[in-house]
Amino acid sequence: MRPPVILKTTTSLLDSSSSSPPCDRRLNTLARHFLPQMASHDSISASPTSASDSVFNHLVRAPEDPILGVTVAYNKDPSPVKLNLGVGAYRTEEGKPLVLNVVRRVEQQLINDVSRNKEYIPIVGLADFNKLSAKLIFGADSPAIQDNRVTTVQCLSGTGSLRVGGEFLAKHYHQRTIYLPTPTWGNHPKVFNLAGLSVKTYRYYAPATRGLDFQGLLEDLGSAPSGSIVLLHACAHNPTGVDPTLEQWEQIRQLIRSKALLPFFDSAYQGFASGSLDADAQPVRLFVADGGELLVAQSYAKNLGLYGERVGALSIVCKSADVASRVESQLKLVIRPMYSSPPIHGASIVAAILKDRNLFNDWTIELKAMADRIISMRQELFDALCSRGTPGDWSHIIKQIGMFTFTGLNAEQVSFMTKEFHIYMTSDGRISMAGLSSKTVPLLADAIHAAVTRVV
Amino acid sequence: MASSFLSAASHAVSPSCSLSTTHKGKPMLGGNTLRFHKGPNSFSSSRSRGRISMAVAVNVSRFEGIPMAPPDPILGVSEAFKADNSDVKLNLGVGAYRTEELQPYVLNVVKKAENLMLERGDNKEYLPIEGLAAFNKATAELLLGADNPAIKQQRVATVQGLSGTGSLRLGAALIERYFPGAKVLISAPTWGNHKNIFNDASVPWSEYRYYDPKTVGLDFEGMIEDIKSAPEGSFILLHGCAHNPTGIDPTPEQWEKIADLIEEKNHIPFFDVAYQGFASGSLDEDAASVRLFVARGIEVLVAQSYSKNLGLYAERIGAINVISSSPESAARVKSQLKRIARPMYSNPPVHGARIVADVVGNPVLFNEWKAEMEMMAGRIKNVRQQLYDSITSKDKSGKDWSFILKQIGMFSFTGLNKNQSDNMTNKWHVYMTKDGRISLAGLSLAKCEYLADAIIDSYHNVS
């Protein structure tokens, strides 16, 4: 029995932003001044000096998104037996995108509704959507909602919610440091940096056990300055799939409250992680129950399959209704210069489903089916690896939760699997379980087995 | 069920809003001094107060020091309008098209496009960061003309944005990152959100003279002077057509002179095109200013919106275009725009983009759209004419009201001051912003005579 493979992973939190100094632009402007008038015609594009004429010449090409790169490489691969485990979206057993039946039904209703128009909605979004989103995450009987201590604004899915929350905190909160788990979703540091917050990290994932480094987490948050903001994945941690247990959540809550840290939850998978909306919201509700303040960003991309419709919400739980009202007024001043008001279509779909008991029940059935399929993929993969006698402890595959799994494979092993087996995943060893099916599990198991036995 | 929900949604207004009592300053008049403004002052005040609250007991809310933000003036107008019980009341503050019955209007081509989408069974997958490819192609071609050399040579970087505002914000963020310290000149007056957008993007701005209250027309001399005296390489924010809030546009000859000056000073034009096709009824005519600059080889940024011309207000569909002098730099610009959008909202909403792509990409729907745009623009022109006729037939003072006919688009600057605008509201139940702007889209032919009475009374009897 070989010892478990130690994952070598380095989290790069900041993109290097290299930009030309302003004098370069002035030089280009000066050069352009001496070009003859005729240079402004078509011939300028054919001229070898045309590039230097542009006021945008000093812009550098931005690095390609690594996850997008995986999908691009996958699309280019001519092999008939290729597998895309990099895509962060649900797929059916046939490997196809899925539009939920309830979504289709609501869209038909919306189109048939002659009273429906396209008028601007408020800066904070559809009132029904906001109210129902808060109830979904906090629970309909939540005291924070009963006391009007919650302000909820519709945003562009999870990313938009995080960004609005980040900009709000940068403007109005006394501490401008946010602690992110190591690792975390690749977009998190960019979102918060551009929002005006400083990013620090706390230990989260333990490569040795492929589980939670709970002691490291407690130590790092315990030494964070009072008032610091702490980003917490509500469930189905991205990219590792490692979540705290409820007992661990209670200890985290006690630590955060005793240190007067501000929790900012990213809830992108409610219902999609375990199949139960209430179970997946439990950590957030634990914090709300103690009466303290917190932020939570919600996304309906995964649990309702509304990826491209960009539906999400930011909720801020305050100490009093009066504070919540003032907070909302300032949130509007963050949103208006960003995009004026949010898009109506996706929010109309969500509001209709959350409001109608029958549609809601049908949604929970479809939601559980998606979650169950992912859970069964985890079990099938684990069983397949065991049956092959693949070296190492693979129990983390069934312990981890949600769409993503940190396999523990290193970059060389990942590269090998791509080259030899046409299996595409990110180099940190993360695979999207949603991209698997019963037909493709054996292929993946074969590839993992070959990788760990042939590539050190 | 959906019907009652939509009925409730249409009344969804934040309870924290109230009628604005803020006294807005008059737009800057005369003089050569450019007002410089950087950073949101109200936020600085909020920030310091937020820090002070840390000194008090730990049980106090961490957000206790946050003050109530000032109410939105335009929203306040609509709020007050709703609260008014008068049956002759008129809402001229709303910035959206209305039918002759003063109802919201969903274009027929939009309904057809949505039905097409449902029939096709489109999925809901994420769009690329830059948006729907078919939309980006259609929107650049609509703006520049499909046979424009800039398009053929792939010198246009187009990224789908959240309507006009989101597109302007992406452009502003690009300026902040790659032209640090560069100043943006905006017209006086301009759409109120322009200042918010550049402030939040940390881009310094100042104003150039534009509106002349004496003639209720364009202060072309002042405009030229101010743009000429701006630092070389400044960004000049220009309304492509149908200037908001004044309705005053340069003539083609004046546009040529503006282009001359911008070339001379190596300024970079940043066009806000929110009304293409909706202003005059002709897509090509309304895009003429942008096309003139591009034909001159001037590199430009252009923010587009489909809120008004396709009636897609709440679908939030627009684009930011950067027309560069080479395909290589256009590609680099696009990569940087994507890099800005990714941490803002990841990728844009799909529904509105599909509607636009389907309408513009389908010759039958495209022609129907043009007909509907002509109808909307035509109704507004008729209202202008009717209002002018009503005023001139009633007003015997000899005052020149011809600016009403010269102005273009949805908005009209009446020349009324704050007191006169208040009189319009208090005495005549006509709701408008305090700067004297009225939205002609909220006016019907049947109401023109009533409005004429109100304007004449306010102009002559209130000082």
From TrEMBL, chain A:
GO biological process: amino acid metabolic process
Enzyme kind, highest EC tier: transferase
Record-listed E.C. numbers: 2.6.1.1
Cellular compartments per GO CC: mitochondrion
SUPFAM superfamilies reported in the protein's UniProt record: PLP-dependent transferases (SSF53383)
Example GO molecular function: L-aspartate:2-oxoglutarate aminotransferase activity
Keyword presence, Transferase: yes
Cofactors, names only: pyridoxal 5'-phosphate
Highest taxon of the lineage: Eukaryota
Domain Aminotransferase class I/classII large: 82-448
Keyword tags: Aminotransferase, Pyridoxal phosphate, Transferase
Regions crossing the membrane: none
Note: In eukaryotes there are cytoplasmic, mitochondrial and chloroplastic isozymes.
Quaternary structure note: Homodimer.
Function: Important for the metabolism of amino acids and Krebs-cycle related organic acids. In plants, it is involved in nitrogen metabolism and in aspects of carbon and energy metabolism.
Protein name: Aspartate aminotransferase
UniProtKB/TrEMBL annotation, chain B:
GO biological process: amino acid metabolic process
Cofactor(s) in the UniProt record: pyridoxal 5'-phosphate
Keyword annotations of the record: Aminotransferase, Pyridoxal phosphate, Transferase
UniProt keyword Nucleotide-binding present: no
Domain of life of the organism encoding this protein: Eukaryota
Enzyme class: transferase
Ranges for region Disordered: 15-47
Endpoints of the signal sequence: none
Residues of the Aminotransferase class I/classII large domain: 89-455
Reaction catalyzed: L-aspartate + 2-oxoglutarate = oxaloacetate + L-glutamate
Gene Ontology MF term list: L-aspartate:2-oxoglutarate aminotransferase activity; pyridoxal phosphate binding
UniProt xrefs under InterPro entries: Aminotransferase_I/II_large, Asp_trans, NHTrfase_class1_PyrdxlP-BS, PyrdxlP-dep_Trfase, PyrdxlP-dep_Trfase_major, PyrdxlP-dep_Trfase_small
Keyword Transferase: yes
EC number assigned by the record: 2.6.1.1
Self-association and partners: Homodimer.
Cited NCBIfam families: PRK09257.1 (NF006719)
Membership in a protein family: Belongs to the class-I pyridoxal-phosphate-dependent aminotransferase family.
Misc note: In eukaryotes there are cytoplasmic, mitochondrial and chloroplastic isozymes.
Protein's job: Important for the metabolism of amino acids and Krebs-cycle related organic acids. In plants, it is involved in nitrogen metabolism and in aspects of carbon and energy metabolism.
Name by which UniProt lists this protein: Aspartate aminotransferase
